[in-house]
Amino acid sequence: MLKKTKVDDETATGQAGIKKKSKVPGVMITQFMEELPEGKTTPDFTRKPIALTIQEGKFAYFKAIVVGDPTPTVTWSRANGEIIFHPDVCQQKYDPTSNEHTLEFPKVAPEDADTYKCYATNEYGRAVCTVILNVIEVGFSKTKELQKIQGEDATEFRKRLKTRNPDGTREEKTMDVNEKVWEILLSAEKKDYERICAEYGITDFRGMLKKLTEMKKEREEEIAQFISHIRTLKPVEVKDDDCATIELDMDLLDSGSKIFLYKDGVMVPFSKEEGEEMKHNLKQVGKKYVFTIKNLSKDDAGLYSVDVEGVNVFSTDFKVPEVDFAVKIQEVKAEEREDALFQCVLTAPMNEINWYGKSALLTNNEKHEIIVSEDKLIHKLIVRDCLPLDGGIYAAVAGIKSCNAWLVVEVEKDPAKKGKKAARKTTIAGAGNDEELLRIAKEQQERYQKEMEEKAQLAKKAQEEKELAAAAVRAKQKAEAEAKAAAKAEAKAAAKAKRAAAGKDGAVRKTKKKVAGAGADGASGATGGVVGVGAGSAAGGAAAGTTGGAAGATGGAAGATGGGSAAGSLAGAAGGGAGGAAGVGGRDGSGAAGGAGGNEGGDVEGDSEVESDEDSFEDSDEDIEGEGGGAKGREGAKEGGEKGDLGGEGEEGGEKGEGGEKGGERRKRARAGPLVPDTVIDPGIHFHAGLSDCKAIIGEAAELECKVSSEECVGIWYKDGAEIQASESLTISKEGCFHRLKIHKVTEENAGKYKFEADGRKTEAEIAVEDPPRFDKEELEAFKAPVTIKKGHKATYKLSYIGREPIKVQWYLEGEELSSEGNINIETSDGTSRLLMMKLQHKDSGEIKIKLKNVFGTIEAVSQLNVLDKPTPPMGPLEIVEASSSVIDFKWRPPKDSGGCKIQNYILERQQVGRNTWKKVGPIGPEAKYRDSDVDHGRRYCYRIRVETEMGTSEMMETEDIQAGTKAYPAPPSAPKVASAFKDCINLTWSPPADTGGTSILGYNLEKRKKGSNLWGQVNPPNEIIRGKGFAVKDVVEGMEYEFRVSAINDSGAGEFSTPSEFVFARDPKKPPGKVLDLKVTDSTYTTLSLSWNKPKDIKGEEDEAKGYFVEIRPAENTDWDRCNSNAITMTTYTVKGMKSMAMYWVRVIATNDGGEGVPQELDNYILAMPPPVRPRFTDAKIKSFMIVRAGNSARFTINFEASPWPEVTWLKDGVPVSKKVTISNAEGASQLLIPSAERSDTGIYTIIVKNIVGQETISIEIRVTDEPKPPGPVDLDENVPGTVTISWTASPDEKRDDRLHYMVTKRDSVKRSWNTIADRIFNNKFTACNIMPGREYQFRVYAKNDMGSSKPSESAKWLIPAKKEKFTLKMPESKACDLQCPPKFLVPLKMHTAPQGYECYMSCAVKGDPTPHVTWLRNNISLNTNTNYLISNTCGVCSMLILRVGTKDTGEYKIVAENALGRAESSTKLTVRE
């Protein structure tokens, strides 16, 4: 990839590069021109970017603020490479509100680290500053090698990538073992390299590491194309829910990249939804990808690879061991603070299995202990100190098999111990079946060993069959090759013989014939060997093999004397090989001997090929070598034959006859024939179970055991190489196939390596003697017994122990370690530790634990300390079980702390509220409840309660007041309702109260009151309550108005009265009223309707007076009437609200009185929900009829109107509906036209039409969209009439688009330099200017003008009419002579001067005179005209003198003298010098 050369601080052509510094450090400014125009500035930074160090993956940004006139343009660059502007990589932004220029990196990557430059540029200069970005790398990132690749040619880079299919999948090919092992190594951790190499047979470890490093670099380069970061690679992990997962975290450059999963190189389909029933699933959570394999089986084993777009990212080898659970874990119920044990037995040994607790992987720690038996079959998990939070499902996972069970933690239910920490228990829940597990494990071990032996035998048999078949194939191939070699040798021999007959002597020819004969014999021997193998007969094979071997030897010898040594050697090799193959089949081993001999003879020169035309000297040398090899081969054959007569060892004899093989072919010789001899030899004694290392504790017993294959076997035991016998401390026993060695009481001398040997077989194990700390059993039992003492007393714990010193002793109280301080004293001596606790309080109660620890282990002992004290008071709140008129029954809560003692009694005292005495009720027993039957109805009582234990009585708890037989009155009934009314009777009804006071309602009391009165009178007699829920009141006066109320009565008495009923007249029922009169609509809107009517007529006996009215409406589409007012109104007007705009309604009014509702009165026609019809009318007082809009700006025009009903509003442009570009917004009473970005084509007459059912109204507005006009073209001047100038110009380009465009002409002449308008509103392109005077220079400007303003002017050339010159005659007037001579005279004399020392002093005066006077300056009457310390001048009569540095010597009188022929004048002054 080509890189552009960067030019720093470039300047435009012809510009000067002036460097200058900014006020901001680190900013360099380049000015392009020497002088800047007024008001213009070069760019500068008011805030420059700040260097940044940030972690990769974070959001990074640089900020800069620049100034300058014109506004600078900001750009960014980097030192290495170019910035890639992409939303996911880098973005450049500008915030106009804060004037901040930013360069943002959404997810900064290591390759973004660089030195960046920020440029601010305008036409007058440029400012630049640098800033550094440092990125901290985390996990995998693009390497430096990738950065180098970025500079390479793209074609070369593609060559380095692996080829892949267009869809990103791998090429279809079978994954061999070599590919598999390298994929595993690429993703494995360094600690696993050695194991993987051993597993796959890699021996060159250094070479592997070198090649692996190169492959890793290559893979990182490939991964970097699609992934920016990758980390947290987790291999296959089997979960407890019958699934396995592969986890990896990666950040894809493209979220749409394809991800593939392969198993042993074959693509595996997977789903991305958990609900889909597929075996493989991919779940993505952010950057985390989890592949799940469900329903695990043995077929799921293999190499799993994850590819992204065809690039391998991660590989992991999933191995499924052949293991299952012989005994699964069972549910365990444990008490709080007790240990829980889960245990299982496997069918095959495993070093470790995975344990899960509530789906979380468990490890060895203080809480969980994982134990594995020596035979690797029994696996245990102990959960220490169980708490309620530890309950849940626990699982064991072995390979792909899993089992789970519940752990149930039973919480202490004793209320006295509730809220207290329970004592630590030393028992283990779930234990007790160790013997059964050991028995099952032993059976599984035997079965497993048996299976392994069977598999080994099958593998051995398969290997033998494979080798046998391979040997037969090799023999056949060798025979064919030898036959071809023999034929070739014969052909060469014949050719040599023919040549020899032509030009060589007879002796040579005779030798070559012998060679040819030997080759034939060798071939025949080879043939005989092959026949022997094919027949399969022992005798025939042996004979053929012997013959072949002899022929081979002969062929070798012949080759040694003849010229064709190569042919002889090949023939001998062929004969020997065939003979060897047949000889293996012979029972007596002679065939093997013959084969070996023949092979040796033939193999001497087997690998060398001699040309047929070599000279006789070379041939003779080779013959000598062949003969030696053949002799050695024959000796081996003879020796093999002799040893073959011994029986099964003929093979060895054949092998020893291989003396000539070193000079022959270099390949290892493979035996032909069966590898297993016909005679089966007894392998002897072997072990079914060997000895296992064990750890023994001093003073305890230790046992070693092994199992042999025969019960008759007798073995010998050794310790550290010396034989051992049974003694008092050591027992050696035999039980069937089991041999045991038992040490009754282990000492340190028993440590060492033990060996059991039987029939040449042996097994070894080591006994490691340990001396962990141990307690004396009797003292330990006494220690565990709980200790109970009274408050203030002391407690002593003492325990003896044994074990290897040093032993660390620690005492704990409730889990906190104790030390000797205060009331605690700990004494530890040799083998004894004592804890003394003095002045104990009840809070010191709890678990006492002693912990011993040395290099061999740790042991603990636990006891319980209970310090007795007085109990605390009982606890409330009080629970009232019953509070009736005859009994009070209540409960309370036991004390929070009973002082460690059992509660004996509760002591109660009772007080009747209102009295000062307390009555002792007495001890009531240990139950926290009391039933008091000695109470008076309605009285209130208070109780005091104390707790009594053997340690004393607690403080009292005083209860709240309890009332015996509380009176509960009923609630008020409902307000009475008037069922009917007559002049002499009013019938009432009511509903009973919802709250009866806990007892049944006995009856009711009814009261009445006249309207206007405050007195209520009871209707029913006082001693006669109303039993029913209604009553007929007959004590009424006709025409009077009454209201009523009622109260309920129960056992406690009468309750409160209900709310009063409505007023009712005591009179006969009335007739319903008639129809209302004159119903009409008075007003209406879109949502409301106002009605008015008159009262109906009162016709006695037919229609009574109306007391109220109901208004009902019905939408035209419905059949049901809706009542607008729930209560009758008395007014004869009503406004209906909530109507739908322009909806159609029917309306009616109903009059009502006590007699009921009258006949409805409807309107004659339906009504519409709308205001009264109004013809559209525009309401704006002044409406503009013309609007000018600049092109590009928005045009907005609002028209206000009123109309009813809602009108239809239409906008037209030049009589045509407006385009979609125009936005029309209509609201109630207004319509707005909006052109968002006006163009010239939007110019036109816009008309609004407001139309409804009453009429329509129209108004038009002219909108002109224009812009400042462009200037006219060139201006021409022409003189057609003397004294005038005709000005003509080319029309402005806007003239055709703007019919209101016109021109203005201005003029300027050489006399009046200002521009004056001479013509305006010119609509053509020509104008004639008058009054043009000759001799003056004129210039004209033409402007194009429209409604927006004027254009820039177009100027004409300068115009000049030359003036005609006439002869000029000057007449000089006669002058009179004037005498101006005068003597000198000072017009301005010298002034006094006072000057500071060292400063200058200036003196001046003015003089006149004619002729010009001569001036002389004097100081103290001494002339100064020639003194160079004084600067003297005389200009037009102004005489001056300058003293540059005044000193003290300059003090004095200064005089100036002016002289001419007519006289003399003087002027003097004094100079004073200040120090």
Q: What is Rg?
A: 64 Å
**Can you count the beta strands?**
99
How many helices?
13
> What best-fitting shape do the alpha-carbon axes yield?
extended
Strand content: 35-45%
Ends: how far apart?
83 Å
The largest pleated sheet is described as: 6 strands, mixed
Low-confidence stretches are 1-16, 140-163, 504-681
Q: Can you give the helix content as a percent range? A: 10-25%
Oligomer designation: single chain
What structural class do you assign from the helix and strand content? Answer: alpha+beta
Please tell me the overall pLDDT.
79
Structural description of this entry:
The two termini are 83 Å apart. It is built from 13 helices and 99 strands. Strands 1, 2, 4, 6, 9 and 10 form a six-stranded mixed beta sheet that branches. The longest helix is centred in the first third of the chain and has 70 residues. The N terminus is likely disordered. The protein is 17% helix and 39% strand. With 1475 residues, the protein is α+β, with helices and mostly antiparallel strands.
